[in-house]
Design brief:
This protein is α+β, with helices and mostly antiparallel strands and about 200 residues long. It contains 4 helices and 9 strands. The structure holds zinc ion. Zinc ion binds next to loops.
């Protein structure tokens, strides 16, 4: 009887090791968090910004995965300059802060800013990384991310990147961007702005 228990114990330990090995390989579907501070979420291993304890990996919840997938689809639509697809990802009431500029509503943003901009981009490179979903409720979340954008335009070369925050709500079963704020980390090459790093 004792030996059967021992074998069962060894089996459980082995299965646990196998399953944690599996999750380590599925790093894309994981977030790193602190056991004491669950609001601390990172996409990479590291230490807690509050208590400096080592962060531990946990699987994303289905809603977190939805939000990460949303931004993969967003990046693909942006790269394809697919304004019709992007329109489905924004709330009509969306408010967009880009640096100190403000666009109020999807109509304003798409017609005076995003639409003309997408048309003018050549050799476009764009994407979000370090996408961290913070779920507030079943139908509310904010997402922080890094962004990068490179493009040739008629009069200048755009080479920028920085931080982005998105506020999203789930309307009619689909996530929509209600608000976004981006802050460029650096200016285009050759810029002499004091914000340059
Ligand atoms: Zn902590």
């Amino acid at each position: 009887m004792k030996s059967i228990r021992r074998i069962a114990f060894v089996l459980v330990v082995m299965l646990t090791a196998v399953s944690s090995g599996t999750s380590a390989r599925q790093a894309a579907a994981e977030l790193f968090t602190c056991s004491m501070h669950p609001h601390v979420l990172e996409t990479k291993a590291g230490t807690c910004s509050v208590c400096a304890m080592a962060l531990t990996a946990r699987a994303m919840t289905p809603v977190e995965k939805e939000l990460v997938d949303f931004f993969k689809a967003y990046d693909a639509a942006f790269l394809a300059k697919d304004l019709a697809r992007l329109a489905t990802m924004y709330s009509p009431e969306t408010v967009v802060y880009e640096g100190s500029g403000i666009d109020r509503g999807w109509k304003d943003y798409s017609e005076t800013h995003l639409g003309p901009e997408l048309k003018s981009f050549e050799n476009l490179e764009f994407g979000h990384s370090n996408v961290v979903p913070h779920v507030l409720a079943d139908n509310a979340a904010y997402v922080t991310a890094d962004y990068m954008i490179k493009a040739r335009m008629a009069e200048r070369v755009l080479d920028s990147g920085g931080l982005a925050t998105f506020v999203l709500s789930k309307d009619g079963g689909a996530w929509k961007i209600r608000h976004t704020a981006t802050a460029a980390r650096r200016r285009p090459a050759g810029g002499l702005s004091p914000e340059s790093r």
